[in-house]
Amino acid sequence: MRIHLTNTGAVTVLDAAEFRRLDVLVDPQPPEKLELAIRKIGRREDSDHIRLSPAVLRYLCGRAGEAEWESGFAGMLAYAAKVGWVDEQGDVRVHIECNEIDEVVTEVEFKAAMRALPAGISAVTTGSGDGVAGLIVSSLTSISAEPPLVGFFIDERSSIVPALLANNRFVANVLGEEHKEVLSTFLCEKQGPARFSKGNWRQGLHDQPVLNDALATVECDIVNTQALGTHRMIVGKIRRSVSRQASPMINFNAGMHRLEPLPG
């Protein structure tokens, strides 16, 4: 079993059913970021070891309750206790392994690849009255139908982040070809009511801004957020949705395009 402290901010588990090994793999990252990651899952003992609670391990693995896994996990803990790796609090001493291989593409290569990915355009809104806020995203994606979940990613420095986290809800308004003015206003105006000066807006649940003629609107409660690299993932549970048939606005190669069917 290997706990992976990635340099994206995510904590993952590798080989969750491999009970002959227990360690923590650490990606290259600034010391302060590493210490924060360690505090999320346990506590540092020395330069080469951290202490992890069995309860945290069970949660991270996501296999709790499976009879075969539980048997193997119990055996691993028993061995750790036998050789003196479990302290009085019941926490397990785990060795830190540094990941020396972390080859990634350059930022230029990353952006070039992502420009080749066509994506719909949505105006994400939150708040009410003078506290409204909005942002254009091309990262809206479906996550689950049961329960109904959608998500998107935004830069941690985005002006909408404080409002989203304070309100704990949002509306994703999917834009069509006819919403060029809405797009332009959201991109050009200062954060706040000025961004809603164009478009047919109404108040939805909790008085949040809903674009009346959007291709689709999904009104959501935020159920999960997580920092990943430079961005934050926002996941919402859909409380209300409306949709209609129309031509979407597509972001491709750093430009806006219309969707047309292939001939034949």
Write down the domain tally.
2
Q: Give me the secondary-structure category.
A: alpha+beta
The CATH topology of the largest domain, please?
Pnp Oxidase, Chain A
In percent terms, what proportion of residues is strand? 35-45%
Q: Provide the gyration radius in Å.
A: 23 Å
Organism: Advenella mimigardefordensis (strain DSM 17166 / LMG 22922 / DPN7)
InterPro entries: Flavin_Rdtase-like_dom, NADH-dep_flavin_reductase, Split_barrel_FMN-bd
Pfam family, one: Flavin_Reduct
Protein name: FMN-binding domain-containing flavin reductase-like protein
What is the element layout, followed by pairings?
Blueprint: E1 2-5, E2 11-14, E3 23-26, H1 31-41, E4 42-46, E5 49-52, H2 54-61, H3 67-82, E6 92-98, H4 107-115, E7 119-120, E8 122-126, E9 133-137, E10 141-145, E11 148-155, H5 161-167, E12 169-174, H6 180-188, E13 201-203, E14 209-211, E15 216-228, E16 231-243, E17 249-252, E18 255-258
Parallel strand pairs: 1-3, 3-6
Antiparallel strand pairs: 1-2, 4-5, 5-6, 7-17, 8-9, 8-12, 10-11, 11-16, 12-15, 13-14, 15-16, 17-18
